[in-house]
Amino acid sequence: MSIYDTLNPPQREAVAQTEGPVLILAGAGSGKTRVLTHRIAYLMDEKGVNPWNILAITFTNKAAQEMRERVDKLVGFGSESIWVSTFHSACVRILRRHIDNLGYDTNFTIYDTDDQKSLMKDVCRKMNIDTKIYKERSLLAQISHAKDELLTPDDMEMKAAGDYNMKKVASVYREYQAALRKNNALDFDDLIVKTVELFEKCGAVLEYYQERFKYIMVDEYQDTNTAQFKFISLLAQRYQNLCVVGDDDQSIYKFRGANIGNILGFEHVFPDARVIRLEQNYRSTRNILNAANQVIANNTERKAKTLWTENEEGSKVHFRQFLNAYEEAEYVAGEIGKLKRNGLGNYRDCAILYRTNAQSRIFEEKFIAANIPYKLVGGVNFYARKEIKDLLCYLKTINNARDDLAVQRIINVPKRGIGATTLGRVQDYADNMGISLYEALRVAEEVPSIGRSLSKIDGFVTFIQMLKSKADVMTVEEILQEVIDSTGYVAELEAEDTEESRARIENIDELISKTVAYQEAMEEQNQSATLSGFLEEVALVADIDTVDPDQDYVLLMTLHSAKGLEFPKVFMVGMEDGIFPSHMTISYGDDGEMEEERRLCYVGITRAMKDLTLTCAQQRMIRGETQYNRVSRFVREIPRELVDLGHTIQEKKPKVEELIPTPAKYSKMKEILQGRNYKPREFKVTKANSLDYEVGDTVRHIKFGVGIVKEIVEGGRDYEVTVEFDKVGVKKMFASFAKLKKI
DNA sequence: AGTCACGGTGTTTTT
DNA sequence: CACCGTGACT
């Protein structure tokens, strides 16, 4: 009995077809991850392919990690030398080695959306562009779209022809790229674009990676854009062993440049491609799957297919309408509470899916009130918090002093008395001399009319220089700690002593833990932990990557974030025309956009394994005004016989004071929620109450093997444990990361 | 230099 | 509603 016997015939075919281009059309829940992992195992076990020669692209880091684990279970060796990563991480890894060929330093900075916006602001100011007419947001959006399509500023200008507006955008694009280059920075889209550029410019580099990646697999292929496709096809050109897996019905990222033509036209680009369809669903009950099939059947732009399942019929799809959003949320919280109390399931079995992030708030409120642990995925990123960004900008400055944006942010944080006027003068000087802001600061005595600020600037420069010189010998954690100590950042917050400042300190502690976790992860993979490595990881994590399947909490997230996941019990909330499908699509969208919304609905429905509940409200507050929405058209597309309507409208007749929160109640809730912004959002116990081992015990570490506990020091957030290992000597580690087992 | 209050504006979705 | 940027004031 081999591991491949558990696969169905088309799955087995997909696994065994290792040579040449392969397109796997994998319906929702048809076991595509199983196919991919078994295929990798097959390549290694049966075909003797060196894992070093395999590249697998996944959509999130979390998926990458899971895939690695599952391959490990199948083959038990060698999975660490497979490249499993997202497009972005793979490109960064390549660029870190070779981007000097394009005239950047290999320690380039990665700009997030905030950084892009401030850079664009600078660019507009310099170009005298009225940001009332040309909004930074929209300029960036247009540039991003151009990059998705691999269009350069020149291309854009040519395309513009007589179009004045587009010409203007093209010139902004050009300046924006120049500014990025000056700061030795890349934005998200550049990561892909520059890698393609590198491949096209340097034949030797491309050849190296073509030789290296003899077997390439791409997951969620329907959501790749033109640039990503180019990246992949360049790599696969030589050996043509390219296997892509996707489902055109789950393409939901058109707004971000995903090119559905990549999947629909695959056979055209690779004429000898083998096409394999996986249509048996193993995930959902028959009722849920039928509902999904019926909804998606309303789309015309698709490869026709019908998923089927041998699973049981299951309960009907529940639909409930409420008077308002409060009651909707209360019902959901109630149902989940009931489930847990009756021992019919855990919190982690449940997911709340909504169209927009703004909808999460009210569920958080009700979950807090009902004492239900939850984790919010998405929304405001941890790394976007002020205190975190400040500290990261110190690290960025130390790592890449050409990053003017980072220098600008921290030069007066904490207050050093270097104000806007002084900074403006230095910036002007830098611009005139064609040097970076930081270089100008280093020679500040040559900047005219600086006056008294000179000594303050000198202090700052000395401080950064000191850190730069130490950076090579210190760990990331030590550098961060040094920044915190020398700037007095935390000390200042401690002195403030408010609810908010305490929460900020907690966040900083968490950042410290993240540096430690990073160092340990690198150690485990036998790689060295570097500052730029850490900054890169920080830039590329998605919130979904931090979901811990061992924690028992309800997940709250957008339908987009839910892609690729599955849950026994799913609540799709806010099922109203104007919310989902969105107001934008209904009023301004074309058929294509409506079909994309419908695919999003299909994705949502097919996340559910056993139980699906759709809810909506008759009345809801949006941006300060009350809206009255009809039931979503998607709900009406599900045949009646598959739906359990309950009592059509939930006539709970709430007491007035329940419906409208009293001011006192309201402000209390607000306090809780604002506090939540600063406390870790999940109900995660970072620090165990006690450890199940003590000094003198023999323990096992997943990587280091067996050792004896020498010392346990209780820190604020965690225990620091010192262990003397038989093989690798004495190591210090944090208990919650090390997962030591007493033996 | 830094803080506060006001008014205008706007988000669908994200690596 | 909530955020951001601007402008006046300390």
Automatic annotation (TrEMBL):
GO terms for molecular function: DNA helicase activity; hydrolase activity. Pfam families: PcrA_UvrD_tudor, UvrD-helicase, UvrD_C. InterPro entries: ATP-dep_DNA_helicase_PcrA, DExx_box_DNA_helicase_dom_sf, DNA_helicase_UvrD-like_C, DNA_helicase_UvrD/REP, P-loop_NTPase, UvrD-like_ATP-bd. Keywords: ATP-binding, DNA-binding, Helicase, Hydrolase, Isomerase, Nucleotide-binding. Its EC number is 5.6.2.4. Residues 286-564 form the UvrD-like helicase C-terminal domain. It is an enzyme of class 5 (isomerase). The keyword Signal does not apply. Residues 5-285 form the UvrD-like helicase ATP-binding domain. ATP binds at residues 26-33. It catalyses: Couples ATP hydrolysis with the unwinding of duplex DNA by translocating in the 3'-5' direction; ATP + H2O = ADP + phosphate + H(+). The lineage of its organism: Bacteria, Bacillati, Bacillota, Clostridia, Lachnospirales. PANTHER family: ATP-DEPENDENT DNA HELICASE SRS2, UVRD / RECB / PCRA DNA HELICASE FAMILY MEMBER. PROSITE patterns: UVRD_HELICASE_ATP_BIND (PS51198), UVRD_HELICASE_CTER (PS51217). SUPFAM superfamilies: P-loop containing nucleoside triphosphate hydrolases (SSF52540). Belongs to the helicase family. UvrD subfamily. This is ATP-dependent DNA helicase. The keyword Isomerase applies.
